[in-house]
From TrEMBL:
Keywords: Endoplasmic reticulum, Lipid metabolism, Lipid transport, Membrane, Transmembrane, Transmembrane helix, Transport. Belongs to the ARV1 family. GO terms for cellular component: cortical endoplasmic reticulum; endoplasmic reticulum membrane; Golgi apparatus. Mediator of sterol homeostasis involved in sterol uptake, trafficking and distribution into membranes. This is Protein ARV. Its main location: endoplasmic reticulum. The chain crosses the membrane at residues 89-109, 130-152, 172-193, 202-221, 233-254. It comes from Culex pipiens (House mosquito).
């Protein structure tokens, strides 16, 4: 009985499940990324399907990987999502939510979204209330985008996505949304030079960052779900538009809290 219970807990912890990787070139599953020839020599495993190195990024510096991520490289996305532990993605996600909420609170987005949570109350504690409402606005928007992406993928792409990659599709999609949001760091110049930028210039800046986010999310969705870029673009745009509509309705309720 004790052995059966131990086996059950091991299954829950995933201790009996071998680590699954993917080839960053074609997305096919591979059992290992490298073979140890000696104590000091490693050889990258070749993919049996495409006959290319399974993951060249295990030999690259982090800076090179980041550059490829900025350039929307599918192999770089596969490396981060499937062949690395993704332990710091949740920290990046928290920072990005706080950054976007701060931009919304300081009215950097007010002329672009017509949403205003800034309070000019003399009491600083009451004035801070707008930041927490902005934080709720951004957090709800992120959750809605994730849910609609998952829903529309299930409806428009009738394939058991993520079944052969070793990572559940919902978890991979969540990591993908966070990874695509890294482009929102380009909102930082809006905070720094907001006073010296015209309204049309700020609107163009925000539009370019949002467009980059949508393109990045389309590329990542194509990697995770196996959809073509066209179908992924349709799914992402639908999810983004529906999320924006529902979030506009929710913002009226959040404004009532001010």
């Amino acid at each position: 009985m004790k052995q059966k219970l131990q086996h059950y807990f091991n299954l829950l912890r995933g201790q009996n499940k071998p680590q699954q990787y993917v080839c960053i070139n074609c997305g096919s599953p591979v059992q290992e990324l490298y073979k140890r020839i000696s104590s000091t020599v490693l050889k990258i495993t070749e993919c049996e399907k495409c006959n290319h190195p399974a993951d060249k990024y295990i030999e690259f510096e982090v800076l090179i990987i980041l550059i490829d991520l900025v350039l929307l490289s599918k192999p770089a996305y596969r490396h981060i999502l499937y062949n690395s532990d993704c332990k710091n993605l949740w920290k990046i996600g928290i920072i990005l939510v706080l950054l976007e909420a701060y931009c919304l609170w300081t009215e950097a987005f007010s002329r672009f979204t017509n949403v205003r949570y800034r309070s000019d109350h003399a009491d600083p504690f009451l004035a801070e209330k707008g930041f927490y409402v902005s934080l709720a606005h951004i957090f709800i928007g992120t959750i809605l985008l994730y849910l609609f992406l998952y829903l529309f993928t299930r409806i428009l792409h009738r394939v058991d996505v993520g079944h052969d990659t070793g990572k559940p599709y919902p978890m991979a999609l969540l990591h993908g949304v966070v990874l695509a949001s890294i482009g929102k760091f380009f909102f930082i110049p809006i905070i720094i030079w907001k006073q010296n930028t015209s309204d049309p210039g700020m609107a163009i800046h925000i539009s370019l960052v949002v467009a980059y986010f949508v393109i990045s999310l389309t590329q990542i969705h194509s990697v995770i779900s196996g959809c073509t870029r066209t179908r992924s673009a349709v799914i992402v745009l639908l999810a983004f538009i529906v999320k924006t509509y529902f979030l506009t309705e929710i913002s009226a309720f959040l404004n009532s809290l001010m």
